[in-house]
Every structure is written in structure tokens, then in C-alpha cells.
Amino acid sequence: MKKYLALALMAAFSVLSGNAQQNISWMMEAPAAAWQPRDSQAELVYKNRLWIFGGWFNSNEAPPRDVWSSDDGKNWELINPSAPWIHSDLSMSVVFRNRMWMMGGWYNGRLKGHSASNRVWSSKDGINWESETENAAWTPRIASAVVEFKGKIWLLGGTENYYFGDKNSLKNDVWYSSNGKDWQLATADAGWQPRAYHQAAVLNGRMYVFGGGNYVPGYLALNDVWSSEDGVHWLKETSNAPWHQRLWFNSVVYRDRIWVMGGWSNNPYKNHDDVWSSKDGKNWEKFQSKTVWKGRHEASAFVFKDKIWIAGGMTPPLVNDVWSLKLPKDWR
Q1: In this structure, is residue 28 part of a structural domain?
Q2: What is the tens place of the pLDDT at every residue in 285-322?
Q3: pTM of the model
């Protein structure tokens, strides 16, 4: 009898918990921000402000070089209309040593003269950008994952080509730097399958790498999760997370959880609008809410003022809306 009572209580708690989740809603902070709709932009939270820069408008022109900032997600200020970097499509960005960093990226879409970059830039204000190195030790690439971990910048995987590459240009190397200029190879083969368009996170003293794959000409999408405490030795947490395999998705760390949001897959062809979270990279829970942004890929995601934020991306069409989600203090 006690066993059945316990099961009934657990089921009731599960229903109540699910209902509590569904009563939490994403809020539209801005239906149309001041910046032009885009995807693949860099994003940061720096000096208590949201920042986006660069990105992609279409594949028949050079990517934008503008820098925008906001202290509330609603009102955006143009900080720099033409920054000196040009490889701003699918670049990598991180805050490190009280500076904004931007590295790698793609230039010129499908046009003649297209290229990837291994240049590294930094800025204290978004106006003035310093070239820390024109040729980092890692090969020119796009769509890597980048995190700050144990006092260093870490760059993980990516692809050396975009529209014109193949799976052979995918990487699973891991690099780190203590100053953004000098880079050391942690491992040339991390053990996880080479990939781009993936995400990485830092939680509980470990780095996590998950999802991603390849776009063209050989489509590949993954939903595995790996972790490491040193960047050299990697542990597979799961081969198949419950969220669908995907590229171009977003991830943040919020309330001691890794969050996976949105993205795109080609099997089936879909822009996702789902939201998942995990405390350990192995066990995942789907987050339900009454309202959510339209399914999209290559948006920007932030944690800012104790909220998760989603901005822009491709739905299609390209959009420039801004959404936020705040969980109650007692949310489990």
C-alpha cells in the first residue's frame, strides 16, 4: 500500500511541476530591435549590457560589421557602424579578462574571395578593436565553440570551410590561450566526432561539448554530449540526448543548468522552438511554457539580469525580435 501511495504522490508532483512550468512564459521584450534582422551574429554580455555584432544578411554580400548594445534588451544603441574585422559570419565570441573577444568567422558568403579566418580581435568598448594576432595557431575556421574555462579561452572544433567544404574540413581539435594571442594545442583529436555549428558550456568544473555536425555538402547532425575537466580527456555523457539532432542552436548556462534552445535540422527539415535543460549533460528535461518564440536557428542567446534572452535569427525570414524568460526563485 505504501508503495502505491508513494507512486501516486510522485505522479501528482510530476503533474503539478509540469503545470508550474507551463505557467511560466517567454516575454517579448522587443518585436523589432533597432538592428537589421540577421543571423549568425556574435553575442556577449559585457559591462552589464547585451552586445551583438556582425552576422549574416544573405550569401551574396559581405557580412555586416556593425556593433550594437543594450542595457534592457528593448532599446539598442549603434556603437560602431563599421568595425575593422570583416569575417563576422559564424565567428566566435567570448568575454575574457574584461574584454570582448571575436575570432575566426567567414567572409563574403558564396562570392569570389570568400574566406575563413584565424584572426583574433578584442575590445574594451566595441568602438576600438585591437588585432591580437592575425594568424592564431589553429587553422582558419568558422562555427567553433568557445568558452572561458580555468582562466583561459578554449576553442573547440569547427570547420575550415562553409558552403564549399566537406566532412573532411570538420575539426575535433581543442586549443587554449591565456592571453588570446598565443595558442596551445590541448589535443588534435578530442575523441568526439569532428563537428561545427555545435555548442559548448562550462558547468561544475567541466567543459561540455554537444550537438552540431555539418551543413553542406554532406549533412550531419548530432545530439551527443561530452565533458572534460582538462580539455584533453573527454567522457561521453550520452550518445543520444532526448532533444533532436541539430545544427545552429543556442545554449546558455542558467540556474546551474545547461540549456539547449532552437536550432535547425534536415531530418525532418525544421527550425526548432523547443527548450531543454540538464544539470549533468546526461539527463535532460524539456521545458514547457505557455508562449515561446517562433522556431529559429543561429539566433543570439544570453543570460542577463537573471533571465535567459533570445534575439534575432532565421525563422525564416530573418528576424530582430528579442525575448526573455525568468524563472521563479524556487524553480527546481
Answers
A1: yes
A2: 999 998 899 999 999 999 999 999 999 999 999 999 99
A3: 0.93
* Nearest-angstrom CA–CA distance, 196 and 198: 5
C-alpha 323/C-alpha 309 separation (Å) is 6
> Mean pLDDT for the chain?
93
Give Cα 99 distance to the centre of its chain.
Answer: 19
332 domain residue, yes or no: no
| Whole-number pLDDT of residue 181 | 98
CA distance 57 to 318: 8
188 grid coordinates: 588534435
Nearest to 331 by CA among 255, 253, 252: 255
Greatest Cα pair distance in the chain: 74
Q: What is the CATH number of the domain that holds 195?
A: 2.120.10.80
Distance CA 312, CA 66 (A): 15
Cβ(55)–Cβ(81) below 8 Å: no
* Count: domains in the chain: 1
Report yes or no on 331 lying in a domain: no
- Measured CA to CA, the distance from residue 59 to residue 41 in angstroms comes to 14
